[in-house]
Write a sequence for this structure.
């Protein structure tokens, strides 16, 4: 066959396309299991980073769960919960079967809530770790798909994320206000619920504020139950004064009624 003919060129092109497509399909199929495992491990690492427990094992300390009709339902297979995080759009719009992670070790209990939203250029997402009271932030991790380096992309840096530690998501009137990224700097009169917005990253900052508000609001009922439980536990742990014996009470009453003596110099 004439290698310069149109027929030869067309046949050659078709054969090469088929060969390359076959190789790519084989590579994608053979690597899928490893890719899924890497994605799962990345999510586990993000959860532990939000908790500030990077040196600890996810599998040994975390109970993955789903919040079904407001009830925390532990899942024996972490993949069931982690798979809920794969589709950010679905996760952002979900109202039930919400993924949640419970950390327990040496008497310490923390919860991690995943959140997702929109930045300036695309998807943003993160994990918010909360103390057992369901109100105090223990740590956060944020990431993004395509925010501007040096500007909106700063949400993914430890320098930015450290400012959320200790913030409260409920105000004095018990309203869920989450945390707002305030342009011009967090106001001192609302410092528990605000952090500084990113300079030059206003749209991304607004996206994070909206993501935290909408994402945490889905867990509002559950988080309030944690606050009530913490309050009940505090009352139960308050020391109760032992009743005085009759003699001790009489002695205390006598001492209380003693007239002060005048002392001359």
């Amino acid at each position: 066959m004439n290698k310069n003919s149109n027929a030869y060129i067309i046949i050659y092109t078709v054969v090469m396309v088929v060969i390359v497509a076959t190789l790519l399909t084989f590579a994608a199929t053979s690597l899928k299991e490893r890719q899924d495992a890497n994605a799962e491990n990345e999510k586990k690492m993000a959860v532990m980073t939000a908790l500030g427990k990077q040196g600890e094992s996810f599998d040994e300390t975390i109970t993955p769960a789903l919040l079904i009709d407001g009830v925390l339902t532990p899942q024996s297979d972490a993949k069931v919960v982690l798979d809920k995080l794969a589709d950010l759009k679905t996760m952002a719009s979900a109202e039930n079967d919400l993924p949640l992670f419970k950390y327990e070790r040496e008497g310490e209990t923390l919860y991690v809530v995943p959140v997702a939203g929109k930045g300036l250029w695309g998807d943003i997402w993160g994990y918010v770790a909360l103390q057992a009271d369901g109100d105090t932030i223990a740590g956060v991790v944020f990431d993004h798909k395509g925010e501007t380096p040096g500007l909106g992309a700063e949400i993914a840096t430890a320098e930015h994320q450290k400012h959320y530690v200790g913030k409260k998501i409920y105000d004095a009137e018990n309203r869920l206000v989450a945390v707002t990224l305030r342009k011009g700097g967090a106001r001192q009169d609302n410092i528990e619920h605000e952090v500084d917005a990113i300079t030059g990253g206003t749209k991304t900052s607004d996206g994070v504020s909206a993501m935290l508000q909408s994402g945490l609001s889905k867990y509002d009922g559950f988080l309030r139950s944690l606050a009530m439980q913490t309050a009940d536990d505090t009352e139960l742990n308050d020391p109760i004064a032992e009743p005085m014996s009759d003699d001790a009470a009489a002695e205390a009453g006598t001492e209380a009624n003693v007239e002060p003596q005048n002392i001359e110099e």
